[in-house]
Amino acid sequence: MKKCVKCGTELIDQARFCTHCRAPQPMPEEMMQTGAPYAGNMMNQVPIAQGNGPKKGKGPLIAIIAAIVLVLAVGGGFAAYHFVGVKAEEDEDERSERRSDKDDEKDSKDDEKDSKDDEKDSKDDEKDSKDDEKDSKDDEKDSKDDEKDSKDDEKDSKDDEKDSKD
Ligand SMILES: [Zn+2]
């Protein structure tokens, strides 16, 4: 362990900054070379970054794999989103289609009802027409009754004449 050069807070050997006061901590040369885990990684990563050493190319390969994974993840996510979006659109279409089907069905039933109403109206008209015909016959009968009444009157009048002679 080492202590902060500024405030004396105890720090891990690999600390480059104080955890308490954020003061930069010196990294002595011997620490870089004694093989402390962090320092060792640092030592290994430098040649990789420069493209040297036995692990040559692994860094970029990992980067490429990471990029592919990222693309797949993003692409897959996009595809999934797209698929879900399309599915949702299909559902929407299906729903609206179903709705319009129902409307059509309702319209069709309304039409059917209208048609029945028309039929009923037509029967009413027919009945009215028959009523008219009956009225007309009644009129005719009334007219005959009037004629008969008139003849009766004539007869009465003759009877009166006869009575008066008596
Ligand atoms: Zn400090």
**Ligand kinds:** zinc ion
Question: Roughly what fraction of the amino acids lie in strands?
Answer: under 5%
In terms of per-residue confidence, which ranges show pLDDT below 50 for 5 or more consecutive residues? none
Please give the domain count.
2
Q: What is the end-to-end distance?
A: 167 Å
Over all CA atoms, what is the radius of gyration?
Answer: 56 Å
Q: Major beta sheet, specifics?
A: 2 strands, antiparallel
Written as H for each helix and E for each strand, in order along the chain, the element string is EEHHH
Number of strands: 2
- Major beta sheet, strand line-up: 1-2
Structural category: mainly alpha
Helix content: over 70%
Specify the number of helices.
3
On the 0-100 scale, what is the average pLDDT? 77
| Global outline | rod-shaped
Describe this structure in words.
- There is one protein chain.
- The protein has helices at 29-33, 37-50, 58-165, and strands at 2-3, 10-11.
- The chain is mainly alpha-helical and 166 residues long.
- It contains three helices and two strands.
- The protein has two domains: 1-56, no CATH class; 66-158.
- Residues 4, 6-7, 9, 18, 20-21, 23 line the site of zinc ion.
Keywords for this entry:
single chain, 166 residues, mainly alpha, 2 domains, two-stranded antiparallel ribbon, 2 strands, 77% helix, rod-shaped, binds zinc ion
Secondary-structure blueprint of this entry?
Blueprint (H helix, E strand, L loop, with lengths): L1 E2 L6 E2 L17 H5 L3 H14 L7 H108 L1
Antiparallel strand pairs: 1-2
The structure holds zinc ion (ZN).
